[in-house]
Design brief:
By secondary structure, this protein is mostly helical. The protein has 20 helices and two strands. Strands 1-2 form a two-stranded antiparallel sheet. Helix 5 runs antiparallel to helix 10 and helix 13 packs antiparallel against helix 18. The radius of gyration is 22 Å and the shape is globular.
Length: 527
């Protein structure tokens, strides 16, 4: 069988699995087996696709035999394959975590009949977005994952989740409106929505028209990626969902937006330079996001703000536009997906074990559960950028690329160094915020909890309408095992940083030359 035949399966299998899981609504174990088998199969397929495109050449599949731009084209290059594999691994591990939580809680938080079909549909939308070869198919991928995310975000039907879900839905609809409007205008101006063909035709438009279309796409994708000032919705939306849902949202959904921005800047508008705007946005996203994290007492809200701030590093790498900058961005995206997901899964364990997620109500966890302390400590150091973890390596790659860009273009060197300084400051504040939580929740003795005073707690505040202390629950081994696997993966990103960065560099090599993407979709040339 040709490797190209595997490409549609990464979308088709989750959709078929969702239908099967819905039919098996009264058979919980069967639903779990179907969901796990589907995502495990996608992990295998994504691994094969990555090996094939890295060793040979990218793959383009014309669905139904219709040639582009008349038919749907699915494209898998090194970047797509990397994103497919990482997202499939994360989705599978989080599913195992959710199964463990569901069994322990008798599926109160994640009702099986609803959760598994919705989770697989979300997966299909994510995978479809990564292999879409035209803007409308990318829009379809976004809408698939967003439709499923509305259900997952409001599981349980509590007032807090419904309010968060309403905000999330409104923001998502606004983003989709911008995206759909941009597609309509782009099609009206160029006669196509095919990404490869747009790379050729968009340059023939007047500069003012290009700028408007470019900004419309960036606004749409910026909302989805949660870049400043379009990130206001995220800290109030993600923390309310069940732990596995929050982990997937934090790890993956914003990265779909980042991926779309990469394609926009490297293929569609490769000849129009908005790097200065992106650098300013990247720096503001870093600083404003992490300052918000400093004031949070609740770890879920704190992590949501760090999620926003670290998107700024990726925007900075995209703005550089060089091969090294893109390679460092890809490596950092992989790092951030795994580390951010791991921290949210660990937070779910902390909430079950300690009965709360606020540093005002947690203490003595190091003595009570040393292993849980390690599970949180390793990814916390990683996110904070402590050497030799992948967080440090990714930031070092971005800063090195920035230094090279500053040397090559003295006119904008001052801005590059400002962004690098913002990135270094953000990394230090991230480390401070996370170690503050670790000290209060794990290192502080439980008998000190009542009336405890510290300068570390002087500036933090509870979440608006935050919940009070909850009852502790049992912590299933399956949840701990799934979290441990992701912690190990984050460490492996450091151990095998050389080969992974080499793969990211080869992916970036394709990105800086849009003709590679164009010739893949249109081997005989395109008008």
């Amino acid at each position: 069988m040709s490797p190209a035949a595997l490409v549609p399966l990464v979308v088709l299998l989750p959709l078929l699995g969702a239908a099967t899981a819905l039919i098996l609504g009264r058979h919980r174990r069967a639903q779990m087996l179907v969901s796990t088998a589907v995502l495990a199969s996608v992990v295998v397929i994504a691994s094969v696709l990555l090996a094939v495109v890295d060793a040979d050449e990218p793959l383009a599949v014309h669905v139904g035999g219709w040639p582009a731009p008349f038919g749907i084209v699915l494209v898998v290059d090194r970047l797509s394959a990397i994103m497919l594999l990482v997202s499939a691994v994360v989705l599978l591990v989080v599913l195992v975590y959710a199964v463990g939580q569901g069994v322990a809680d008798r599926h109160r938080e994640t009702p099986v009949s609803i959760f598994h079909p919705s989770y697989l549909i979300l997966s299909a939308g994510v995978f479809n977005a990564f292999i879409a070869g035209d803007l409308f198919n990318l829009y379809v991928g976004f809408e698939i994952l967003l439709s499923a995310s509305y259900v997952l975000l409001t599981l349980g039907g509590t007032g807090e989740r419904i309010r968060a879900g309403v905000t999330y839905i409104i923001v998502s609809l606004v983003s989709s409106l911008f995206f759909l409007s941009a597609i309509a205008l782009i099609y009206g101006a160029t006669g196509t929505a095919n990404i490869a063909q747009l790379s050729v035709r968009i340059g023939a438009l007047p500069d003012s028209v290009q700028l408007v279309l470019h900004l419309l796409l960036l606004i749409a994708f910026g909302i989805k990626a949660a870049v400043f000032p379009l990130s206001f919705w995220l800290p109030d939306s993600y923390p309310t969902a069940p732990a596995p849902v929050t982990a997937v949202f934090a790890g993956l959904l914003t990265k779909v937006g980042v991926y779309a921005i990469i394609r926009t800047e490297t293929v569609i508008f490769s000849e129009q330079d908005l790097s200065l705007l992106l650098m300013v946005v990247g720096a503001l996203t870093m600083v404003i996001g992490i300052l918000g994290a400093l004031t949070q007492a609740d770890i879920k809200r704190l992590l949501s703000f760090t999620l926003v701030s670290h998107i700024g590093y990726m925007i900075f790498g995209i703005a550089l536009g060089t091969q090294l900058g893109m390679a460092a961005t890809i490596y950092y995206v992989v790092h951030h997906i795994t580390v951010q997901t791991t921290l949210f899964l660990t937070t779910g364990l902390i909430e079950r074990f300690g009965g709360a997620t606020s540093i005002n109500r947690l203490a003595g966890l190091l003595k009570a559960s040393p292993f849980l302390a390690i599970l949180f400590f390793i990814p916390a150091l990683n996110l904070g950028g402590i050497p030799p973890f992948s967080g440090f390596l990714g930031k070092a790659g971005l800063f090195l690329a920035g230094g090279e860009q500053a040397a090559a273009d003295p006119a904008t060197a001052w801005l590059v160094w400002v962004v690098i300084a913002a990135g270094a400051l953000t990394s230090l504040i991230t480390l401070y915020a996370l170690t503050r939580f670790w000290n209060m929740a794990f290192w502080r003795r439980r008998e000190e909890l009542d009336g405890y005073e510290s300068v570390l707690l002087g500036s933090v505040q509870e979440a608006p309408e935050g919940a009070t202390v909850t009852a502790t629950k049992t912590t299933p081994r399956l949840m701990v095992a799934a979290t441990t696997v992701l912690v190990v993966v984050t460490v492996l990103l450091t151990v095998f940083a050389g080969p992974i960065f080499g793969l990211a560099d080869r992916a970036a090599e394709n990105l800086v030359d849009p003709s590679v993407y164009v010739s893949l979709v249109f081997p005989g040339g395109v008008q």
